[in-house]
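re: that chain from earlier
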Amino acid sequence: MTCPLQELPIRSPYLGREYTECEQWRAQIVDRLKAERPRLVVLDMSRRYGADFGFASYDPAWIDTLGRTVAALRSSGAAVLVLGPAPDPHGSVPACLSAHLDDATACAPTRSAALDGGGIGAERAATAGGGGQYADLTDLFCTPDRCPVIVGNTLVFRDDNHVTTEYAQLLAPVMGALTDRALAGG
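^ sequence. v structure.
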């Protein structure tokens, strides 16, 4: 939990100490990837880190280590696809919907509030600089103005940050196309 693959020193606010287990996990994953030599590595991570972790999402250390991580994974011969963030609904979606039974749009944050456009751009550049491909998922979750929490008849988030199984299943063909494109090199 809360352990990005990037080599960032992490202090867990939950444990109240340096998160040494994260460093051990990272080393094990990298060793396993080197041994198994996959054709594609798909990298996704939470973007909800704040300074209490010893770094913050999109800060210079985040961006620098993302580029280095992508380059290291590419050096194994694998294609690397970094998934951009899902929007932040800024609270428990089921609780919000329960409080707004007649107006689900009251629970839909604006696109600019739900996503960090500058951070996404910096991640895209760092990923490309490391030789990987970046998939901005914004349009899979948001209209030009808002990020709805219900699409069609499907609930998007099951809490304050996890996508529902049903919405993930709807996105599966798109994710498959993204991985096919990454494997094809473009």
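The mean pLDDT is 95.
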